[in-house]
């Protein structure tokens, strides 16, 4: 996967793969690893927000803090359910699925970190296997932005867009953070590559002073 530079560049992140039968088991292992990876990171964010809430909360506000915690736990459960479902034989309505996903990500990951979320989701349908793997990739990109893009910003915003154009689905994560200055690395990057390969998708991105944009481009004809 290409590096991310400090200036806008259409080739910041780009990967295109052709899956073979021998790759399929490894791809599924990556899906499972991503689910566990997301659970670990989300619990870390949740734990930090709980410590912050209860450290700053006086006796009179404990009930409100407990209510916030309960909502976040419910949202985390909903997020994990969306990401772990694997019914490959179902056609899923894109708008309903990704609007639900964005809501769960916002409540479980972004709101505890003080980050606003916007979404623009087009209608359509996708096979469940493609839909769920796109969801895993979007969640990885959103969580990565939440962790690294906003060291000192009070107006943090992440926007999620999906659009059906020219025979492909375009799923984009945009942040108004500091702009990525290095390559995507580690477990998250390897999982993104494997998931992209499994649905014949590629990643395109650009980074600059106004933030970072990464787009997943998946041909509609991909099986």
Q: How are the SSEs placed, and which strands pair?
A:
Blueprint: H1 21-56, H2 62-84, E1 91-93, H3 94-110, E2 116-121, E3 125-127, H4 128-148, E4 157-165, E5 168-175, H5 186-198, E6 202-208, E7 211-219
Summarize the structure.
Its EC number is 2.7.13.3. By secondary structure, the protein is α+β, with helices and mostly antiparallel strands.
Description of the molecule:
InterPro entries: HATPase_C_sf (IPR036890), HATPase_dom (IPR003594), Sig_transdc_His_kin_sub2_dim/P (IPR011495). By secondary structure, the protein is α+β, with helices and mostly antiparallel strands. The chain has one domain (about 20-220): Histidine kinase-like ATPase, C-terminal domain (Heat Shock Protein 90), CATH 3.30.565. The chain is built from five helices and seven strands; from the N terminus they run H-H-E-H-E-E-H-E-E-H-E-E. A five-stranded mixed β-sheet has the order 2-4-5-7-6, covered by helices on one side. Strands 1-3 form a two-stranded antiparallel ribbon. A hairpin with a 2-residue loop joins strand 6 and strand 7. Mean pLDDT is about 75; it is low at about 1-20.
């Amino acid at each position: 996967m290409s590096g991310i530079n400090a200036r806008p560049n259409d080739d910041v992140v780009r990967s295109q793969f052709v899956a073979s039968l021998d790759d399929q088991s490894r791809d599924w292992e990556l899906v499972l690893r991503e689910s566990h990876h997301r659970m670990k990171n989300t619990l870390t964010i949740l734990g930090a927000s709980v410590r912050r809430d209860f450290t700053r909360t006086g006796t009179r506000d404990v009930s409100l803090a407990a209510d916030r915690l309960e909502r976040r736990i419910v949202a985390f459960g909903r997020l994990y359910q969306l990401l772990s479902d694997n019914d490959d034989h179902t056609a899923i309505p894109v708008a309903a699925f990704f609007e639900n996903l964005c809501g769960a990500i916002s409540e479980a990951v972004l709101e505890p970190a003080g980050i606003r979320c916007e979404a623009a989701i087009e209608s359509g349908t996708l096979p469940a296997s493609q839909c769920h793997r796109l969801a895993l990739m979007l969640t990885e990109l959103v969580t990565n932005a939440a962790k690294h893009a906003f060291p000192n910003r009070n107006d943090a915003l992440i926007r999620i867009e999906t659009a059906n154009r020219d025979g492909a689905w375009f799923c984009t994560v945009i942040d108004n953070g500091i702009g990525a200055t290095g390559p995507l690395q580690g477990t998250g990057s390897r999982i993104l590559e494997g998931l992209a390969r499994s649905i014949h998708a590629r990643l395109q991105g650009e980074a600059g002073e106004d933030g970072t944009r990464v787009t997943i481009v998946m041909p509609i004809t991909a099986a």
